[in-house]
Write a structure and sequence with these properties.
This protein is about 35% helix and about 25% strand. By secondary structure, it is of the alpha/beta class. Strands 1, 2, 3, 4, 9, 13, 14 and 15 form an 8-stranded mixed sheet that branches. The model has no long low-confidence stretch (mean pLDDT about 90).
Length: about 350
């Protein structure tokens, strides 16, 4: 999975600056329009003021780090900066933007995308900065990290490996590659029944730990689709959640597992275990501030007010539909979750966490 997605020459993410949108393979909240970035800008501005309540960061020139992991071509960062510049110039002046993406093609595309905000871009690289004072955020990053695919058998936990059968890729079942897989399930307090498949995302835990270590003071905000451990490792998902997307079609018909077909040409993804990510963040010095549906988060930030002010023209109708797409149950509003963590921060709940904190 790592090779298929991230090989520097043939990997799915490495070969293109952007994989989402109408001309891509799947949609994210960013593809709906600039509203998602504008709502995040509101939340980031409040986070900045929570860190620097008297505005001393602007006066001293220190500012705030905004670090986007999995930044792709920089579209989300562009939306955030456009909104901040238009609605909160004081916050905009404090921003130091850091873009992180494994793809050199994506990093090259960021220069054009963020040209109007070139002075705000402090760095663009493949890894997180070592020291962050501000906000680290990621939109649908953890679900795209390589996972271990496992199955419970009558003889205990086994792992799926990729092998060759002539010129075809096939799955083989073998002993787990690391004890960490069984330890992960024990820590999550779940038990797989014989025949159940599942994915274990050790890379998500490692990334979360790295982010929390890098965050000296501030916030970590993650947007992704997933479930608590007791749901993701249950009969509801007994077949696992590993899937592929190509041209907005999931798991095209194939002989054998779809993710073995044409590796490097399609997305491979699995749902995120929210419980284990939360535990990893807390183990490395962060405090959980909220875990909730994206819809509730955006409504608390004022998206409903945006809907109320939309006019009746054709363009306005399109914008209203786009805004609703971000919050409607059954779509992005409930499938996508917001996880917010803090480090050395205090005070009342953030605005985005001030409404119902529900997971559906």
């Amino acid at each position: 999975m790592s090779i298929a997605l991230y090989h520097p020459e043939h990997g799915y993410y490495a070969r293109a600056a952007r994989r989402t949108g109408r001309n891509g393979d799947f949609f994210t909240s960013v593809d709906v329009g600039p509203a998602f970035g504008a709502m995040l800008a509101r939340q980031f501005a409040e986070m900045w003021r929570r860190l620097e309540p008297d505005g001393t960061a602007v006066l001293s020139g220190e500012g705030i780090d905004l670090v986007e992991a999995g930044a792709s071509n920089g579209q989300l960062a562009r939306d955030v900066l456009d909104a901040a510049r238009a609605t909160d110039p004081e916050f905009y002046s404090a921003i130091r933007l850091h873009l992180v993406d494994a793809s050199p093609v994506a990093r090259a595309a960021q220069q054009e995308m963020l040209a109007p905000h070139a002075a705000k871009v402090a760095s663009s690289g493949a890894t997180l900065p070592d020291a962050v004072h501000g906000v680290i955020y990621a939109n649908e990053l953890l679900d795209a990290l390589p996972v271990h695919s496992v199955v419970m058998t009558g003889r205990g936990l086994r792992e799926h490996y990729v092998d060759l059968d002539g010129d075809r890729l096939v799955e083989r079942v073998g002993q787990p590659s690391t004890q960490a897989l069984e330890e992960y399930l024990r820590a999550a307090n779940v038990a797989l029944r014989p025949g159940w498949r599942a994915e274990i995302n050790l890379a998500a835990l490692a990334w979360t730990a790295r982010a929390c270590r890098a965050l000296h003071r501030g916030f970590l905000l993650l947007v992704d689709y997933g479930h608590p451990a007791e749901e993701i490792y249950s009969a509801t998902h007994a077949g696992g959640t590993l899937t592929t997307f190509a041209r907005h079609v999931a798991d095209p018909s194939a002989e054998g597992p779809a993710w073995l077909e044409e590796p490097g040409t399609r997305d491979i993804t699995s749902h995120v275990d929210l419980t284990s990510v939360q535990r990893a963040a807390e183990q490395f010095g962060c405090t959980t501030l909220g875990v909730l549906d994206q819809g509730y988060f955006l409504l608390a930030l004022g998206l409903a007010d945006e809907l109320a002010t939309v006019g009746s023209s054709v363009a306005a109708t399109r914008r209203r539909l786009a805004l609703k797409t971000l919050i409607l149950p059954g779509g992005l509003g409930s499938t996508h979750k917001i996880l917010v963590f803090g480090k050395q921060v205090q005070g009342a709940p953030l605005r985005g966490l001030s409404g119902p904190s529900r997971l559906t």
